Amino acid sequence: MELEYWLERGAVAFREWARTYGEFAGHPAAAVDEAAFEVAFEELTARLRGSYPFFHPCYAGQMLKPPHPVAVAGYVAAMLVNSNNHALDGGPATSVMEEEVVGQLAAMAGFADHLGHLTSSGTQANLEALFVARESRPGAGVAVSSDAHYTHTRMCRLLGIPVHTVPVDDRGRMDVGELERLLSAGNVGTVVATTGTTALGAVDPLHRIVPLARRYGVRVHADAAYGGFFRLLADGDAQQLLAAETGAALRAVARCDSVAIDPHKHGLQPYGCGAVLFRDPEVARFFRHDSPYTYYTSRRPHLGEISLECSRSGAAAAALWLTLRLLPLTRAGLGGVLAAGRRAAVRWAGLIGACPYLELYQPPELDIMTYYPASPADAPSRLSRIAARSSEVMRRGMNAKEEPVFLSIARIPAAEFTARHADAVVDSDHTQVLRSVLMKPESEPYLEHLHHRVEKLAKAACAGPRANGR
């Protein structure tokens, strides 16, 4: 699609609508000089060139990619209206769109009934879920895995909730045996399970966690900010792309009490679009408040009445609404985008397995890769060397004048590394491995080129084939 054409169509549609309210004079206080604007705009676009190329498949570092052009067109068209979805007073049209897309997200999660809304981020979505957890189980603690997102501990501290950390297994997933020992003590009211950890893309075994939590009368919240959309690949023919246990865990989201999901990750949206969903609509009682100057234009529930946030962009709802009209939440729709990234990850794992200069840290569960430069045959795999070589590969790749490649680093405790690679020599309390996120569908056709570039960088860092000689 020609983005420039649709951006202009959005601006024209806004002007035509605005004219129906009659002409009015602009105020000179808000006027800007056209020549000065041109200078400032040129400076802006020049400075933006200092960004990393998130749009290109050579960028395989963090969870970053551009929004789909459909989302951009929808966002800009609605941004000109600049509605606020806190109340129907501020966003009558976009609030309805938000209700529609939230209903679609809830259906994807498997919630028959739901209460939910979009948020400005996954952090905010998780904060609201933890707030409801506190109100539902006063005085009880929250259990999170040691690989859960760091913001859970911070948000629990903010909310005054005791935090209990559960160790992970040798794949970075919450250890269910350790969780049961913790629950048996009776101090936990909510378990936070992660479907797609941000470091490894690991999926906690929700299908085992939920029945265990129910046995102890404990709530379950799914932090599906990263991996939630992979639910589209957990049924039917598409589930062959996922391990059986991963698919079972994703299907178990339907039995959780709440879920956080980020459309600004795999949902192709611009930043500022998260979502929180509750399976029981009655949790609305925890959000009730009075406002003396809003909520007057309609008797329908206003989104601000079920949210901790006040002002929120209506444009975010419009962008997601338009995107899901073109790429619906089906295996053939948005699921096809996720399938491309998952296939790329599986394919790259195979290429790394056959490469003498790279070693997998662990097989990918979703679309996040972790790997490191292999040690030469005549040198042991020391954690300090693995860290140094991984950092060198990342540095050389991003600073290359020709064909740069952008990777990231994950910090791994020594015990977690040796749980996967027992022959490593522990000469440090941690090491670093390379990490790549293949969330852009363009990564699939680009993969062989990406692998070749990383292999070449690893060869230079290793100065020899790896010890096992594969």
Topology (elements, then pairings):
Layout (H helix, E strand, L loop, with lengths): L2 H17 L14 H15 L20 H11 L12 H18 L5 E5 L2 H15 L4 E5 L5 H9 L3 E4 L9 H8 L4 E7 L11 H10 L3 E6 L19 H8 L6 E4 L12 E5 L35 H13 L7 H20 L4 E5 L5 E6 L9 H17 L8 E6 H7 L9 E8 L5 H20 L8
Parallel strand pairs: 2-3, 2-4, 4-5, 5-6
Antiparallel strand pairs: 1-7, 6-7, 8-9, 9-11, 10-11
Helix pairs in contact: 1-3, 3-10, 4-10, 5-6, 7-8, 11-14, 12-14
Average of pLDDT: 94
Give the N-to-C terminal Cα separation: 45 Å
| Radius of gyration (Å) | 24 Å
Number of strands: 11
Major beta-sheet overview: 7 strands, mixed
Global shape:
globular
> What is the topology, as strand order, of the major beta sheet?
1-7-6-5-4-2-3
Return the structural class.
alpha/beta
Q: Considering DSSP H and I runs of 4 or more, what fraction of the residues is helical?
A: 40-55%
**How much strand content do the residues show?**
5-15%
> What order do the SSEs take from the amino end to the carboxyl end, as H and E?
HHHHEHEHEHEHEHEEHHEEHEHEH
Short description:
With 470 residues, the chain is α/β, with parallel strands linked by helices.
Structure overview:
This protein is α/β, with parallel strands linked by helices and 470 residues long. 40% of the residues lie in helices and 13% in strands. Strand 8 and strand 9 form a beta hairpin. The protein is globular, with a radius of gyration of 24 Å.
Using brief descriptors, characterize the structure shown.
14 helices; globular; 470 residues; 40% helix; 11 strands; alpha/beta; seven-stranded mixed sheet
